[in-house]
Structure to design on (414 residues):
């Protein structure tokens, strides 16, 4: 075991990281399993890069998500008001267990399956607007609206309240360092949004998830008011943000690898396996949510002191050749089971069944309608969001080019 005493390495150059994240993380992974680095906030952090270590750490109860376990004067992170901060991404058991149990019933396989027909109907309606266009941004017109509509319908967010939601979320998850006021404005907008929404649902409850959570708060007293608002905030943001990027990255990867798209079209039974491989190959979350050891802990042979910030690199783990042979190659026939794109352990993504279903339908409906779909720019010219927290496209310009029709994928996910 070792405990490096040398000063932390400088933060990875953001430009280099955005240009070639898998190359940067891959180099660090091969240099060693754990690195003491300077984070983007200027404070020390420990970066874990190898699959086995990352997977084990994700499920280790000694690695806390509760910021109160951070070293005093250390981790600062995103600043949110208590009404948005009392969410599952900042909690350990028993509070995490209590709150997760309340919302998990909304994402059971049976409930998700009941959404299949409405989701396909929504996807088809969005694709109607693409017909006849020479070029279109698939993120703006398809990959982003689809998850927003689905999660807002699930929560019960009225259509009139959805207009600003994407802009607020983008400002929080991918903040512009030259315009810090935008993140503050987004926090204020979201806080006002959820305050009004909960008040409306209290006055006029309906058959939706948010009304049910309000009933738990008001009638059973199993949620605080901050926990109620924070839970609604997390479900809405996570249900939108990660699925947008999962769909967008998947479409971009398939269009950049036409032989893989052809194989998928030739064998509809590959769809489920393809979704897992696409999540591994270019997932929406490069780094898991930060963690804080509750005691000195050994990771990859390195002792990490209690309270210091631990960053788990999912991007590095997913390209670890010790776990995935030839990891830089997209192979939809690969058994990518065990990927960590949707988490692992007690913090495994609640919405994983919904995200998988939405992605399968999004791909199927898209290539059903436009079998000749192609990228309008070379793959290396696609612009990514400047974010350490998420990996997604700013835009995905495509040429629909195909005539309306049905591909072989329809049998699997229609």
């Amino acid at each position: 075991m070792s405990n490096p005493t040398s000063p932390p390495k400088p933060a990875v150059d953001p430009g280099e990281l955005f240009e070639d994240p898998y190359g940067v993380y891959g180099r660090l992974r091969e240099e060693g399993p754990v690195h003491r680095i300077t984070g983007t906030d200027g404070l020390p952090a420990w970066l874990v890069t190898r699959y086995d270590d990352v997977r084990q750490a994700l499920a280790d109860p000694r690695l806390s998500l509760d910021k109160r376990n951070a070293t005093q004067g250390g981790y600062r992170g995103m600043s949110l008001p208590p009404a948005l901060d009392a969410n599952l991404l900042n909690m350990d058991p028993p509070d995490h267990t209590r709150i997760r149990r309340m919302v998990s019933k909304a994402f059971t396989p049976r409930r998700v399956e009941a959404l299949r027909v409405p989701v396909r109907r929504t996807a088809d309606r969005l694709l109607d607007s693409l017909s006849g266009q020479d070029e279109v941004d698939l993120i703006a017109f398809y990959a982003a609206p689809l998850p927003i509509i689905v999660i807002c319908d699930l929560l019960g967010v009225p259509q009139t309240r959805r207009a600003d939601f994407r802009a607020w979320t983008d400002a929080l998850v991918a903040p512009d360092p030259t315009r810090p006021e935008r993140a503050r404005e987004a926090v204020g907008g979201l806080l006002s949004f959820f305050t009004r929404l909960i008040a409306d649902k209290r006055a006029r409850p309906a058959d939706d998830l948010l009304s049910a959570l309000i009933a738990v708060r008001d009638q059973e007293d199993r949620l605080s008011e901050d926990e109620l608002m924070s839970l609604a905030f997390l479900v809405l943001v996570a249900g939108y943000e990660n699925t947008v990027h999962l769909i967008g990255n998947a479409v971009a990867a398939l269009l950049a690898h036409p032989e893989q798209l052809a194989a998928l079209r030739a064998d509809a039974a590959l769809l489920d396996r393809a979704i897992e491989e696409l999540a591994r190959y270019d997932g929406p979350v490069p780094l898991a949510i930060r963690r804080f050891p509750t005691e000195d802990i050994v990771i990859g042979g390195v002792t990490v002191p209690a309270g210091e910030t631990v960053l788990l690199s999912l991007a590095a783990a997913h390209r670890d050749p010790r776990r995935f042979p030839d990891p830089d190659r997209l192979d939809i026939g690969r058994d990518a089971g065990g990927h960590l794109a949707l988490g692992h352990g007690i913090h495994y993504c609640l919405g994983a069944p919904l995200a998988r279903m939405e992605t399968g339908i999004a791909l199927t409906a898209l290539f059903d309608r436009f079998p000749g779909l192609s990228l309008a720019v070379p793959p290396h010219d696609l612009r990514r969001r400047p974010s350490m927290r998420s990996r997604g496209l700013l835009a995905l310009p495509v040429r629909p080019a195909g005539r309306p029709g049905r591909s072989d994928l329809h049998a699997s996910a229609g």
Observations:
- The first strand starts at residue 34 and ends at 38.
